[in-house]
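Friendly challenge for the regulars: who can give me the structure tokens for this chain first? No prize, just bragging rights.
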Amino acid sequence: MNNIKLQVVAVAVGFVLLIFKFLAYFITNSDTILTDALESITNVVAGGLGLYSLVVAAMPKDRNHPYGHGKIEFISAGVEGTLISLAGLLIIIKSVHSFIQPNEIRGLDFGLIIVAIAGFINYILGHWAEVQGKKSNSLALIASGKHLKSDAYSTVGLVLGLGLMILTRWYFLDSIIALFFGGLIIWTGIGLISEAISAIMDEADYFLIKKIVHILQNNRQTNWIDVHNLRVIKYGNALHIDCHLTLPRYFDVLEAHKEVDLLEEFLEKNLDAPVEVFIHVDACPPTSCILCQRENCPIRSQSFEKLQSWNLENIMKNKKHQI
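First reply, four minutes later:
Bragging rights claimed.
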């Protein structure tokens, strides 16, 4: 199932669960269950926005969007985080009001069953969405998955709280539990907003860059004297990679192009995302001889001393490698 179809399922299931949760609230009059129901509203609204962003992100590049439309996913994730935070704030306000003026609570056993079933479904769907989102580098789908899983985690606490109220009849716990989970929901929303801002600002993803360095290190060729000035920009699930590749300075255009194609091939084959690679070719200076293990080099001025490993520190600098 592709990302768009999975998001359609998430929105449809979220809408059905929303109806049942509000049914449980009207039966029980419990703020704890209202907490779950209000979060489900954000699930549906944010899920719809996420679906729109996935459809737009899947559109091909055009004249006005030469890098594609993928960044819409980051905006979607940011809006989703904002909606989640607002839902948490509303829950806190309602909980404080109900603590001052308690509600009459009834039928908690029925409400507990509905909330528990909804939480289980949300966790399964959220885990599925998050795994698929990470696999395809889709922040919109990851955000939806995290949202659904956070809803499920909240539900576990809600179920325990409802069970405690049924056993003890301490109904004042209803507002306290709702207050706690309102704060938890706000924390989840702030986390999504932070991730979205980082992506929009093209903040370096060091985990991803380490993966790229590992690919290059494990597939390095004798002619690749060094790779430096490596930069990675995300456009939704697509990656744009820039780097400089130092090659022997006596290579002609065809020889250099062959090495560039080979490097691009390794990246495209080993990254689980659409990849666009822009490589600038540098000619090796005499100071690179001590790092170059190419045999029978006609212009070697110094003996080979050491093969330098590529890492985050030397591959991201805009500078040819040195010992």
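Residues 28 and 108 are 6 Å apart (CA to CA). The mean pLDDT is 82. Your move, everyone else.
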